[in-house]
Amino acid sequence: MPEDHDWEAYKVPPTRTPVADRTTSVPNPVDFIQTVFNYVIDAPVTFVREWIERQQAKNKFYYYHQKFRRVPDLSECLEGDYLCFFEAEAQWRRDRMVDGEIVEIIRERVRACKHREGPNQLQNCAKEVELLAQVTKAYQDRYGDLGYHGTARTCLMKQKHRMMEERRAAQEKESE
Predict the structure, then answer these.
(1) What is the pLDDT of residues 75-115, one digit of tens each?
(2) Which of residues 100 and 57 earns the better pLDDT score?
(3) Residue 163 lies in a domain
(4) Which of 39, 75, 93, 103 qualifies as a FRET site for 20, CA 20 to 30 Å off?
(5) What are the coiled-coil residue ranges (predicted)?
(6) What's the half-sphere exposure (Cβ side, CA atoms, 13 Å) at 41?
């Protein structure tokens, strides 16, 4: 493109935009309503909101990283200590939810590995599949057969019965 332009060939059209020069003694009602709105409604609301944000900035609270203190297990609660029973039940429910999410994360990793590796999934995803088998077995051993309405007490009884069966099997094995 040439450096020097031919201004005669490409003329810029003259600006003929009319200037609004309206001078009246009556103010524009829209301007008046906007000013009233800004001072009566918007300014107090903005002030209160900024004050709340300043207060929240002083006290940061990360609700999504809430850490609960570990409470005693149900087997460690004293007889008749209902508050301890309640806390142990809540702790057990949180543990069950966390363990379920761990199983889901490992399962998603296996699914992604199988999708990524395609035909070579048997050899390249063997570690992930083995880890999934271990995690699901541990989850099934602890929470399996409890159902939706399982509680910490039924889980504790299940673990107690499993330990008794393992002891009985070990004693039978020794006696043979």
Answers:
(1) 899 999 999 999 999 999 999 999 999 999 999 999 999 99
(2) 100
(3) no
(4) 39
(5) none
(6) 5
If asked whether residues 97 and 145 sit together in one domain, one would say yes
Contacts 24+ apart (CB under 8 A), 9-17: none
- Within-domain flag for 50: yes
For 37-85, give the DSSP string.
Answer: HIIIIIHHHHHHHHHHHHHHHHS---GGG--PPP---GGGSPTT-HHHH
Amino acid identity at 109: R
pLDDT digits (tens, 9 = 90+) for 112-145: 999 999 999 999 999 999 999 999 999 999 998 8
State pTM to two decimals.
Answer: 0.57
CA separation, residue 52 to residues 14, 48, 60 (Å):
53, 6, 12
User: What's the CA gap between 42 and 106, in Å, rounded?
Assistant: 51
Domain of 45? 28-63
Number of structural domains in the chain: 2
